[in-house]
Amino acid sequence: MTIATIDAKIGAEHLERRAFVYIRQSSPQQLRDHVEGRRRQFQMTDWAEHAGWPKERIVVIDEEGKTAAIPKARMAFGDLITAMGRGDAGIVISLEVSRLARNSPDWHHLIYLSRWTDTLITDGETVYDPKLPADRMVLGIRGQVAIVPSGLTGRCNTAVRNRATRLEERIAKRSEASASTRPSSRCF
Questions:
Q1: Would you place residue 179 in the very low, low, confident or very high pLDDT band (cuts 50, 70, 90)?
Q2: How far apart are CA 89 and CA 35, in angstroms?
Q3: Is the per-residue pLDDT at 50 higher than 60?
Q4: How deeply is 108 buried, as exposed, middle or buried, from its count of CB atoms within 10 A (0-12, 13-18, 19+)?
Q5: Which member of 17, 92, 124, 136 has the lowest number of beta carbons within 10 Å of its beta carbon?
């Protein structure tokens, strides 16, 4: 898979810097109850590799169990902002980009900093370049919508579908295994 296959916005200048995969679930209860969401967030490292980042330049920032409601609770978010300010980040990857910051000032600061440091933002489906007015507008809207937990339904539905698929695969494997051990019903 080539870079252009994933998105033409990703250039060599981005690949020379690090890819930051941001993982977050707000509470210990979410960590227990939303295992599929956690799995999907960690799979974003695979996306970064397919996009062209070597493993040694993919950094996972894991803030699981930390709420964005308390500003100083998310120290790793501050580390991400610092890395962006230094120009170390080529892209910031999050399953849902609005999960990066749950309050408007943090979100808009992230977009502003991304714009001036040429850092891309992606959710694995769309790559946003905050230098482009249309992408900045979409990111701004997504940040405002994130304040309302309406995105929760979509994430839960995707998690349920992924879980169901894995269950179907396990059932199919068991059926195949038991079919191969059954005696033939044909009489000769």
A1: low
A2: 28
A3: yes
A4: middle
A5: 136
CA distances from 111 to 9, 121, 135 (A): 16, 9, 10
Please identify which of the residues 26, 94, 98, 114 carries the catalytic annotation: 26
Range 67-96 average pLDDT: 80
| Cα separations in angstroms, 59 against 44, 164, 167, 179 | 11, 30, 31, 45
Q: Is this model's pTM higher than 0.70 or not?
A: no
**What is the percentage of the chain residues whose pLDDT exceeds 90?**
34
175 is catalytic: no
Give the CATH architecture of domain 10-135+142-177. Answer: 3-Layer(aba) Sandwich (3.40)
Helix boundaries (H) for the chain? 3-6, 12-15, 28-33, 35-42, 44-51, 75-85, 104-117, 133-146, 151-181
Confidence of residue 147 (pLDDT cuts 50, 70, 90): low
